[in-house]
Amino acid sequence: MNTTRGFTGRPRAARPGLPPGQYDAGDDWPVLSAEVTPQIAPADWSFRVGGLVAEPRTWDLAAARRLPASGYAGDIHCVTGWSKFGVRFGGVSLDAFLDAAGPLPSATHAVAHAHTGYTANLPLADLTGGRAWIVWEYDGRPLAPEHGGPARLVVPHLYFWKSVKWIAGLELLDHDEPGFWEQNGYHARGNPWEEQRYSGD
Amino acid sequence: MTETATHTAGTFTPPARFAVPGRIEVSGRAATTWRTATLTEIRRETPRASTFRLAVPGWAGHLPGQHLMLRLTAEDGYRAQRHYSLASAPDDSGHIELTLDRVPDGEVSGWFHTVARPGDEIEVRGPLSGFFAWPGDRPALLLGAGSGVVPLMSMVRHHRARGLTVPLRLLVSARGPEELIYAREYGTETTPVFTRTAPAGVPVGRLAPGHLAPLLADPPAGGWEAYVCGSNAFAEHASRLLVAAGQPVDRIRIERFG
Ligand SMILES: Cc1cc2nc3c(=O)[nH]c(=O)nc-3n(C[C@H](O)[C@H](O)[C@H](O)COP(=O)(O)OP(=O)(O)OC[C@H]3O[C@@H](n4cnc5c(N)ncnc54)[C@H](O)[C@@H]3O)c2cc1C
Question: What is the ipTM of this complex?
Answer without folding.
Answer: 0.83
